[in-house]
Specification:
This protein is α/β, with parallel strands linked by helices. It contains seven helices and ten strands. The protein has two domains: 88 residues, no CATH class; 164 residues, Dihydrofolate Reductase, subunit A. The strands form two sheets. Strands 5-4-3-6-1-7-10-9 form an eight-stranded mixed sheet, sandwiched between helices. α5 links the parallel β3 and β4. α1 packs across α2, α1 crosses α3 and α3 runs parallel beside α6. The longest helix has 44 residues.
Length: 301
Amino acid sequence: MFGRKKKEAPTIDPVQKEMFENAQKRIKEKRGLFTHLVVFLVGAIGLITISQVMMQVDPMLILDIEWWIWVLFIWLLFLIYHTFKVFITNRLLGPGWEKKQYNRLVQKQQERIAELEEKVAAAHPLPEHKIMNATSDSKKVITMIAAAGANNELGKDGDLVWHLPDDFKRFKSLTTGHHIIMGRKTFESFPKPLPNRTHIILTRDKNYKTDGGIVVHDLSTALAAASSDQEPFIIGGGEIYKLGLEVADRIELTRVHGKFDVDTYFPEFDEKKWKLVRTEHHPVDEKHQYAFDFETWERVD
């Protein structure tokens, strides 16, 4: 699609990015507090137990314990904590808890902003007029948008293997003003962040940083970051589409009529669970080497 270049100034809403990063920070603080509490409790109970046992045997014995026994005791504490973390912490504070925390913390910050806006509006009222909110009562729709060949080909080496200007125009028209969820490689394929869209980058790299979007490490958190958007878009690549297929309500698919040499594929989806509600054919012309169809699929299950 694009060559890899140095990113220019980001277009992400700085207020929204700050809100979400603050939510991430608060969640880390809560996890850290829980960890410290568990270590303190386990260590305190262990030390009390050892001291009581030694006092029963010989009050002076506790002073003569070999150093390696204390090393084993510390190792035992870590073992107990690790076991507790695997079987308790990760269940209680897993992805579901994390998603709720993101939603709750971001919602609180949005409510504070709304309160400030109300105060400003009360102090400086605008002329009365009826404001129509088209999405206030509408259902949230998660949309995957992609262009794929006859055999679900997506691209090679991070780029598309076709050039379809009208498909680019459609992508821009549909996604402008929305949150777009993507993998790190897809994000880095852009010469700069796409204008008027909030970028959410999904990556396994815990150390990955960028000023061009919100970095997350699982799809649940990505969707939580897009909670204020009634129609977030999942834009690729292949692995992200596989994850997105489980949660998507709609697929905007450009089916390119051709077979291509690629290394990335759009996932197969069961057409019994999806309904083709709209299709528009685009023939070959002077700007488009391949014919293609714009297809809109909606989940029916």
